[in-house]
From TrEMBL:
This is Amino acid/polyamine/organocation transporter (APC superfamily). GO terms for molecular function: transmembrane transporter activity. One of its GO terms (cellular component) is plasma membrane. Keywords: Cell membrane, Membrane, Transmembrane, Transmembrane helix. Its main location: membrane. The keyword Transmembrane helix applies. It is a multi-pass membrane protein. The chain crosses the membrane at residues 12-31, 43-63, 84-109, 115-137, 144-168, 188-207, 228-250, 275-301, 322-340, 346-368, 380-397, 403-423. It is found in: Cell membrane.
Length: 446
């Protein structure tokens, strides 16, 4: 008898799950980086990133309703292109999670914390990641319990910034002309906006993890597309408003120099103590790192259990029943990345890794059109995944050489892992073929 997961997730629950995944720490720390790349029109790269993310979200919507099973990107790519490709995509997802935690650890040590206390970055990063790993090892229930409260705090913080920014505009202290300033001294308008869009894309990641809930959604054919596109649109509106008020209220140069850019809006408004918003921002950053760390460690554990990574990573801590080796391993790599990279370069590295994942999913949805799947599933027009794939290929060309140098190391490891797993799988099949005829001969002679 096949055991299936209980279908208990309604459309509103799925909507808030996806929205909570998207509305994370990225916008708290990257608005300044986007301003540095694009100029005063910070809202524009955020809107472009929304459009690009929505293209690939269409592919996820079709596949999640066509094959409503847990497994996500790696499952779809495996189904379309085989286990080697699925292994590669799974590793890229894992590497993206580890890089993201490193970026958020670095962000935690930035201006938001420095507004409260002056501590060396190295000390903050080490202590921060150690505490997150300890909470992760303690247990999933404790970790997700902390997430509920933290999500409410981080969403409230974004709404507070929008309100303060609008107040600055209403009292006449904002410069609305900055909203149309595109380009920098280094790049023209088009190049600057696209460079900013690469970083802004980081703010929309998270929706791809929701496909793992498709098996538990009551009516995935109707619920999943509604919740997914609704959450993306909501996040896009919030982010665009953040971009507008931040750019109008704060001079572009000051915004670009800050690693706590939304704190600059609070300071201009003058209605909320710096320390209060700094605490809110730090909660948002810590929550994003915690959730991503949970995902990364569980993905590493699952891949190790399936024989795709060293079996040591599948060890479980007695009593707590948590994958302690996977947690320590992923946290250690995040620590190394946090100590050797800046927030914007790490964010761009994450986008690079996810472009491999998203491009593979966009291609997979076209290949899997030949398979029937669930009757009446959501179907996106063919042009959408084609545009999604094209956008991924185009964004590859907008990523700096320094980011490629870091990212290709991780991509190369994923490719080597895929080849090794493919050879092992082929060896297992060949061995089975050799054994079966011998067994047939023994059966025939008895």
């Amino acid at each position: 008898m096949t055991v299936v997961l209980k279908r208990a997730v309604t459309t509103p629950l799925l909507y808030f799950f996806i929205l909570g995944d998207i509305l994370g720490a990225g916008v708290y720390v990257l608005v300044g980086s986007v301003a540095r790349e694009s100029g005063g029109a910070v809202w524009l790269p955020l809107v472009i990133a929304l459009v690009l993310a929505t293209l690939t979200a269409g592919s996820y919507a079709e596949l999640a309703t066509k094959f409503p099973r847990a497994g996500g990107s790696a499952h779809y790519v495996t189904r379309a292109f085989g286990p080697a490709a699925g292994s590669f995509v799974g590793f890229c997802m894992l590497a993206a999670g580890v890089v993201s935690v490193g970026a958020l650890a670095r962000a935690f040590a930035g201006d938001y914390l420095q507004a409260l206390v002056s501590v060396p970055v190295v000390v903050v990063v080490v202590v921060f990641l150690a505490l997150l790993a300890a909470l992760n090892i303690r247990g999933i229930r404790e970790s997700l319990g902390a997430n509920v409260a933290a999500t409410l705090v981080e969403v409230g913080g974004l709404l507070l910034i929008i309100g303060l920014g609008l107040w600055v505009m209403l009292r006449g202290d904002a410069d609305l002309s900055r909203l149309t300033q595109v380009g920098t001294a280094e790049q023209g308008a088009v190049g600057a906006v696209l460079a900013g869009s690469v970083l802004a894309f980081y703010s929309f990641v998270g929706f791809e993890t929701s496909v793992n809930l498709a098996e538990e959604v009551k009516d995935p054919r109707r619920s999943y597309p509604t919740a997914l596109f609704g959450a993306l649109l909501t996040a896009g509106v919030v982010y665009a408003l953040i971009g507008v008020v931040a750019s109008a209220a704060v001079p572009t140069e000051k915004l670009a120099e800050s690693s706590g850019p939304l704190l600059e809006v609070v300071r201009v408004a003058g209605e909320v103590p710096d320390w209060l918003f700094s605490v809110i921002a730090l909660v948002a950053v810590a929550n994003g790192a915690l959730l991503t760390g949970i995902m990364s460690s569980r993905l590493a554990y699952g891949m190790a259990r399936d024989g795709l990574l060293p079996s040591t990573l599948a060890r479980i801590l007695p009593g707590r029943r948590t994958p302690w080796v996977a947690i320590l391993a992923t946290s250690s790599v995040s620590l190394l990345l946090a100590l050797t990279g800046e927030v914007d370069s790490l964010a761009a590295t994450l986008v690079l890794l996810l472009l491999f994942v998203f491009g593979s999913v966009d291609a997979a949805v076209l290949v899997l059109r030949r398979e029937p799947g669930e009757p009446g599933h959501f179907r996106i027009p063919t042009v959408v995944p084609l545009l999604g794939l094209a956008s991924c290929l185009f964004l590859f060309t907008r990523i700096d050489g320094e980011v490629w140098a870091r990212g290709l190391i991780l991509v190369g490891l994923g490719a080597v892992l895929a080849v090794v797993n493919a050879v092992r799988a082929r060896g297992g099949v060949d061995a089975k073929k050799r054994v079966e005829p011998a067994e047939d001969r023994r059966g025939g002679s008895s």
